[in-house]
Design goal:
Length: about 180
């Protein structure tokens, strides 16, 4: 069901960009998403491709968003029971806090694995490098060879991106790849 705040967010929030279908199809294949039993999509409302395709593939999933009926803020929302994968395209402007929170959720056992679509520049800065290095045991990075064309409400923009993944089984042997 459409929600006014969400529809406004799509128009005015520079952080709100829709991920194109091919990007979601591609990562769902790469990580073998159908093998997961309980998937959390924490920045995804009803019209997101992450959600649409999870439903099409009949994956048990929970999509939440700050402007859903419960106001599901990522930083306070409890992941679904037995969550073995969290995957999404988070708001890039909050990336440091989101990466930090994602590792906290791994640490406390609320999620087993995650994949976050982030700007390629996420690999810069000492703060993020330190976080990634601390968890490098199970980290995998997938770099896009071409910039992704994100679909804004009134505009589009191209961004160099990568997936930052943690503890994804299908990526164990290929911890760094370009797609
Ligand atoms: C990059 S968009 C992703 C949209 C959609 N997931 C997609 O890829 O098509 C990130 C979304 O997260 C929402 N958001 C911002 N802060 C949030 C928070 N603390 N908790 C949950 N969602 C948040 C924004 O409003 C925005 O719609």
């Amino acid at each position: 069901m459409k929600n006014i705040q969400y529809e406004n967010d799509k128009v005015y929030n520079r952080d709100h960009v829709a991920t194109p279908r091919w990007v979601v199809e591609n990562i769902y294949n790469l990580i073998n998403v159908t093998a997961y039993g309980s998937v959390w999509l924490p920045f995804n409302n009803y019209d997101s491709q992450f959600k649409t395709q999870a439903a099409e593939l009949k994956i048990k999933h929970k999509a939440t968003h700050i402007f859903d009926d419960l106001g599901s803020d990522f930083f306070t929302t409890i992941p679904p029971d037995d969550c073995d994968l969290m995957i999404s395209n988070p708001p890039f402007s909050l990336q440091n806090k989101i990466i930090e929170r994602s590792f906290e959720l791994i640490e406390d056992g609320s999620i087993k694995a995650f994949a976050l679509l982030l700007p390629l520049s996420t690999l810069e800065t000492a703060k993020r490098a330190d976080m990634f290095q601390r968890y490098s045991d199970k980290l995998a990075i997938i770099v896009f060879k071409k910039r992704i064309k994100f679909l804004g409400h009134t505009s589009q923009f191209n961004k160099a991106c990568c997936w930052v993944c943690y503890n994804i089984d299908s990526l164990k042997e290929t911890r760094l790849q370009w797609i």
